[in-house]
Amino acid sequence: MTDSHCHLGSYKFAPEEIPELIARAKKAGVNRMITLATDPDDLMINLLIAHEHPEISACIGIHPCDVHNAPDNFEELIKPHLDDSKVAAIGETGLDYFHPAPEGWTEDDYHARQRDFLRRHFELAKVAQLNVVIHTRDKSGTASFDDALGIYAEYAKDVRAVFHCFPGPPELAGRVFATGGLISFTGIATFKKAEAVVATVKAAPSGSFMLETDSPYLSPVPHRGKRCEPAYTRHTAEAIASQRNISLESLTQETEEVVESFFRL
Q: What's the topology of domain 2-262?
């Protein structure tokens, strides 16, 4: 199986322990990992990790919470790597209305910059014929999701998007599917009070989702509260297979087909 979304360039993972993380992942049946850049500083770190390890591919982009740290012409950081065989998609990009605006920014200006960056990520993806990994998060309501889905709809005929770490009910997932997109599930699917996510797990059509850890965050049960790592994809996979009343083998066959198509592996 594949961990379709992790952050191996995170400061929470020491560079020297990456081989151990990969070994533990393989032992758990996780033979492939997609590591995602989030800011200008870790873009090259993630690409280097991908080039050093055949099991790993990378996505390149600016996370919405880092748009204020990125240059106005952030595309110039990404364009030189679009033809890199190790680059599997554009991202992590998206909209985040949960975290407060940084010092010196109004909420309106911060969110407007996020929306501008998201559109420009889609433009990059369209030219490079790559797909896009989207993050959304709200304090309440669905404003960031609604805005991101609206922007995606402008590009949906040329680019496919996955709404990663999908936290919502089946109705929201249905809107993603209707636009032509995918979702992916993290360890949240193993949490006792994640009724909305479990309902979406059960309702999602075959071929509409992937598995991920979002490590080092969101460890699944039985590791909840600890640092997450790619090996834990298996816990989420086992929980989702049980919730969908199918075998783990059937689930992984379905999700691997989605992974290989979306990331063009």
A: TIM Barrel (3.20.20)
